[in-house]
Amino acid sequence: MYLLRRVPVFFEQPVGGDGRITLSNGTRPAGGHTQNGRGYAAGAVIPAEPWREPSPAERDLLLTDSLPTGPANWIAVISVPDAAVTGLRHFPPQSNLPASCIEALLLSLSPYIVSRSSIRVHCITTNPPGLLTGTIAEPDGVYLGLHLDSWDRLSFPENSRARNRVCINLGTTDRSFLFLNLTLADMLAATGSSVDAIRRAGASDVGRAIGRLFLERFPDYPVVKLRVRPDEAYVAPTENLLHDASTADMTSEDVQLTLRGHFRIPGQDARRGGSVC
To answer: Structural domain of residue 226, as residue ranges?
Structure first.
């Protein structure tokens, strides 16, 4: 299946042909793949290597120069103000951030925030370098592979209203965001199936069943690897597209902070505030 233009990527800062985006050779079952002493969940799917640069035509399909609109059909890479991240690096993983630090972070990101009441700030987390995918299923302790987030507990198609995720790279090297550039609705349309048919097949989670069905039918569809530099963040509808993080190309520990909420991309003249916490 050829690459489609469905969920484009917007870079707040213009980029050239600098390898910020690469494509996998489709996907494959994780099978017996292990990393960091852990295996994968039953049925897990991971990107198939090798990775390659997109062609000029594919790059045009993947990127957009237009400011995104709507909550669930775009991905953006933004630069996070120094004032917002300098103080964050003082806190160990899994610790709760003090209210003053959270307030400074949200003030710095205020041009991007649609609704302050929608924001949830998670704790800082880490991963070792060298992982093809990074998300672990608890309490089983196995890797998930490509998956959907489900924090807002919204089923398909209501999941398109879920809060977006902002993930800030607090590390010292580039980290990677892996995703299929298709929403669940796009994947369902590509399979030719329907919600009723999926439910009749016994699926308890329609969204995840749509993702599995698409991956089974179109194993040649490429995964996008998006490099996110230190002090950058991605904004993505992670409850509406298959994704994961990767530290495969990192040489030092992956450190990141996640926020969830309703976000927008402001005009290029938006002014940012904030102070070091």
So the answer is: 9-261
